[in-house]
Design brief:
Length: about 400
Amino acid sequence: MRTQVAIIGAGPAGLLLGQLLHRANIDAVIVERKSANYVLSRIRAGVLEQGTVNLLHEAGVADRLRSEGIVHEGAEIESVGARHRIDFKGLTGKTVTIYGQTEVTADLMTAREASDAPTIYEADEVRLHDIDSRFPRVSYVKDGVRAEIACDFIAGCDGFHGVCRQSIPADAWQAHERIYPFGWLGLLVEKPPIDKELVYINHLRGFALCSMRSSHRSRYYLQCTLAERVEEWPDERFWRELSARLDPALATRLQIGSSIEKSIAPLRSFVAEPLRYGNLFLAGDAAHIVPPTGAKGLNLAASDVFYLWQALREHYRTGSNTALDQYSSRALARVWKAERFSWWMTHLLHRFPGATSFEQKIQEAELSYLFQSEAAQKVLAENYVGLPY
Ligand code: APR
Ligand code: PHB
């Protein structure tokens, strides 16, 4: 098989790139290790920046987002009983939209099916070949038979554990990484959210987040230790611990129920640099990871895809490689600012085991300053709604 762009991974990054390329009349084949249903069963964040929403419109996959997405003009931060609303709209003129990553993925899969563009699911042993040449190839095993795709470019959209980044010689890229000494225990429940907006909580017992997917589905998180296992957290224990971290007025509004999903995720900051090797381009989680505080993961995947789509379009329309050559530096300039913000918000809101009294006092001063200073709130709001592309 031959195509112009071989996309590895059918997560949001790969599917969005595939859809944008399809609309630009550029051929792409998507190769995914798992089944479509497996990809759709992964529960991830659900806060879309305006830039991400705009790109989904541009890709022609925003009909359901338009009718079901919930626009939020602010979010609340609570610290040791004091609650403060950050007015995104008032401070920046911008908003965010609540719409689950699972829904974004489902909409992209529907569009891809309708377009008849090829997607190979359940492809085993995906390998990249000759990526530093003008004739790169991708091979994989499907139903026991090895097949090959010849292409001009490979888009590595295969997530943090994928094969693409690992295919780059060790001396041709650098990893920048921070691992945090805690995780997030998440629970999804078919009950109305506790509040109209998201509530981020810094509590003595640890961080908590009250989020939502819709007016009848809520998502809650608790900071937990890395040693903890989901089995140790029956629903009753989760609800008890969450209530203990909420201020009493908020706790009385909590509607509990049986969890639909419960999982623990570690927190990590990671950036691979550069994002290009030969004709392989990394995008999304394959290239970088942020801790979930601030919900930047999907939004960063979208901005990478925006730059890569523009660069590939320029190449095929004009023959120019200028934007392809600039892809890594353009994408990374935005990535690093979101990495900084996610790292900062993680430090602001979590309890760090072994923190010195000095570190604890600095965190309290940072929160107090945020609550008192409109300038500080504006900095948070500007980053939360998303920096420009
Ligand atoms: N071959 C083919 N596909 C692979 C391989 C492989 N060797 N390894 C992984 N994949 C697939 C995964 O099964 C997954 O479906 O690549 C896809 C990567 O998708 P995501 O992990 O969702 O990453 P991305 O599309 O970059 O989306 C970024 O999703 O992971 C969240 O927090 C992240 O919200 C952010 C967004
Ligand atoms: C979520 O709804 O899953 C979510 C929301 C905001 C975050 C992280 C996760 O910062």
